[in-house]
């Protein structure tokens, strides 16, 4: 479909929904950690599944998304958002927004917005498709996107994930240790948390991380800490540690690993806690109990939905969690939505990926 008709159609859809559509505001870092199970700033491949919501800033090949629809936190984002093209994916719920083409894929529940073409795919909810299409469209193809589609599409360009998550990582690395320490007993690393008055324990692993990540077993004593931040400046790590006593599942929502210098990470055993590594390419050969926030991903194990529930400065920006966004007046929200669509479509015409 030519640029002008598409632009007019989408902008009219937004205008018609101005009174009811959700405001499009940028997510804070704490919003991202809660609403998303996986955020990849670049491209990703997957041969496994993700329990919750996923954002991919480049192209995506493979994977099964939104396995746990009812447990996925609410968001203006679709269940799967891909800035580039996607192939061989399955979305179980909450719909999808695809910035390029979609091929050999299935969306079981929720609306689909595809700004390229669709081939050999099954879209079982309503679909708005900009390019040529072939496959099964059991929910029907719409000439005008519905309200949910517009909300998902506007949201897809509302947050610069790289900037927000990078800011969080940079802020967290400045936190001083709260007295938390790691001791070694042969092949075992024992993490002893000491929490501050807010229940936050901070580990500074910079002096020991090379030795630490060569160990085969991790044991955690949280000692009442409700949030644990683990800062490491390691650049590359191949980690095979076993989290003893079911700690990966037990503490997955409390641990936040900040790999602020990493460019290459490999996880070979079940991992506990969210991985924040905005410059790293991650390969997970086993399951991760927590969120994944990386630059590139080769997903070979499952990513389970354990949103980080810890405190990051109380939302005041002190530790990289910006204050909650203030909703805009209706006119400004509509204007922002129009600009978002205009920018998205102009990028589409230039055949560049959507802004991340």
Topology of helices and strands:
Elements: H1 3-16, H2 29-35, E1 38-40, E2 44-46, E3 54-56, E4 60-61, E5 64-65, E6 80-82, E7 86-87, E8 90-91, E9 96-98, E10 102-103, E11 106-107, E12 112-114, E13 118-123, E14 127-129, E15 133-137, H3 147-155, H4 161-172, E16 181-185, E17 188-192, E18 200-204, H5 209-212, E19 217-221, E20 227-232, E21 236-239, E22 242-243, H6 247-250, E23 255-259, E24 264-267, E25 271-272, E26 274-284, E27 288-289, E28 292-299, E29 303-304, H7 330-349
Parallel strand pairs: 1-3, 1-28, 2-4, 2-28, 3-6, 4-7, 5-8, 6-9, 7-10, 8-11, 9-12, 10-13, 11-13, 12-14, 13-15, 17-19, 18-20, 19-22, 20-23, 21-24, 23-26, 24-26, 25-27, 26-28, 27-29
Antiparallel strand pairs: 16-17
Structure overview:
By secondary structure, the protein is an alpha/beta fold. The chain folds into two domains: 3-25 and 77-157 and 326-349, no CATH class; 169-304, no CATH class. The chain is built from seven helices and 29 strands. It has helices spanning 3-16, 29-35, 147-155, 161-172, 209-212, 247-250, 330-349, and strands at residues 38-40, 44-46, 54-56, 60-61, 64-65, 80-82, 86-87, 90-91, 96-98, 102-103, 106-107, 112-114, 118-123, 127-129, 133-137, 181-185, 188-192, 200-204, 217-221, 227-232, 236-239, 242-243, 255-259, 264-267, 271-272, 274-284, 288-289, 292-299, 303-304. The chain has a 22-stranded parallel β-sheet that branches. Strands 16-17-19-22 form a four-stranded mixed β-sheet, with no helix packed on it. Strand 16 (181-185) and strand 17 form a beta hairpin. Helix 1 (3-16) packs antiparallel against helix 7 (330-349). The longest helix is centred in the last third of the chain and has 20 residues, at 330-349. The radius of gyration is 21 Å and the shape is elongated. The two termini are 24 Å apart. Mean pLDDT is 86; it is low at 1-9, 14-22 and 314-353.
